[in-house]
Amino acid sequence: MTQVLVYLSLGLQIAAMGIAISLFKRTKFNAAWILISAGFFLLTIYRVIELFPAIHVSDLEKAYKVQVWLSFIISLAFAIGVFYIRKLFQFLRRLDNLRSETEKRVLSAVIRTEEQERQRFAKELHDGLGPLLSVIKMLLSGFAQNNSPEVNEKIKGNLKQAVDEAIESVREISANISPHILNNFGLKDAVTSFVKKLRPNERIKIRFDTNIEKRRFSYNVEVIMYRVICELINNTLRHAEATEVNISLQVSGDTLRLEYADNGMGFDVEQAESDGGMGLNNMRYRLQSGNGDIEIESEEGKGMRARAYIKCK
Predict the structure, then answer these.
(1) pLDDT (tens digit per residue) in 292-303
(2) Are 294 and 287 contacting, i.e. CB atoms less than 8 angstroms apart?
(3) Which CATH code fits 179-311?
């Protein structure tokens, strides 16, 4: 019975040693794990030596001395391994803290982005639709029975024009919130449409080149890349005083890549990111949520270049 238990123990020890060694790559050859694996290996040898008396009874004393030394080395390997494994746990704790901090920053960026969108929506309603509704109210109050037919007809014409402008304003606000072209026709058509709306602005020339054609991506990928492109263009229009913008949107394998450049006045990238201005952090967090990222290069007087990518599969 004892012999059976020894053989069983040896089998379990070999299995444990194999599992420990197989985890070397996952632990990136961490010193603590190597020592613990060495301990398992030596324990396997220890179990083999326990079988030694049954094979060579005359070497019993020699086997005992080897067992004593093995016991000491095994204890030492495990002791040092446990000591070093504390550093592994400390590293994991720092990793958890970093992950928690990143999640907080992402959540903060999402909340900030949502608040900015609400403020923009409120401003568009106030500045665009509000005055038109006030004009419509004023025109309606101008109707009177004692007015001449010509006056009432003129008021009707003005009222119709104001209502048409209000409808168009609602369409523009709706398109900014959730672009129907993006939902119905895809990223290329949505970006092209956005660029066309800016063409009445003669002081800036925008070139858009892409190979995606009619290819569709997931809703998340299309919305993120569309918002990033729109944010970059808006930043150029508001801050850069540029006359040219070049946009290249290319799909290669499972990655959608964007290259954006303007010839504007440039800026200090580190300062802009630390100040949280120009929506740079929001763009980065949007892309990182889709396993992507963005790099921005700029110098004062030398324009700006942005390279972004997002996984599309």
Answers:
(1) 999 999 988 889
(2) yes
(3) 3.30.565.10
